[in-house]
Amino acid sequence: MSEDLAKGLQTAFNARDIDTLRSLLAEHATWGEDPESANFCHDRNAVVARVKRLLDEGVRATIVETTPGPLGLAVGDRLNAARGVRSARVQ
């Protein structure tokens, strides 16, 4: 994954631009660490649906760091939910 694509995904995510985010994600994009987890997203549509659901629930996240690599993109984000702010790292 290129730095330009990583920055494009970061910009689209942070702007809550779902259409651009969808267009930049690979069809087989995944989100999560454990493929057996109920929260794991197995494709682009699942990733977009999860982002929309989290936004609808009032969760606000900002990607503050991206690290592209041969297997995809590691993301450092900052979450602001109703219960407070926490940091997380998502791959």
Helical/strand content category = alpha+beta
Q: What portion of the residues fall into strands of 2 or more residues?
A: 25-35%
- Tell me about the largest β-sheet: 3 strands, antiparallel
- The CATH architecture name reads Roll
So what's the CATH class? Alpha Beta
Can you lay out the helices and strands and say which pair or pack?
Elements: H1 3-14, H2 18-24, H3 44-56, E1 60-69, E2 72-81, E3 84-90
Antiparallel strand pairs: 1-2, 2-3
Helix pairs in contact: 1-2
Describe what this molecule looks like in 3D:
Residues 83-91 have low confidence and may be disordered. The longest helix is centred in the middle third of the chain and has 13 residues, at 44-56. This protein is of the alpha+beta class and 91 residues long. Strands 1-2-3 form a 3-stranded antiparallel sheet. Helix 1 packs antiparallel against helix 2 (18-24). It has helices spanning 3-14, 18-24, 44-56, and strands at residues 60-69, 72-81, 84-90. Helices cover 35% and strands 30% of the residues. The relative contact order is 0.17. It has one domain: Roll (Nuclear Transport Factor 2, Chain: A), CATH 3.10.450. It has 3 helices and 3 strands. It starts with a helix and ends with a strand.
Task: Describe the structure concisely.
The chain is 35% helix and 30% strand. It has 91 residues and is α+β, with helices and mostly antiparallel strands. It has one domain: Nuclear Transport Factor 2, Chain: A.
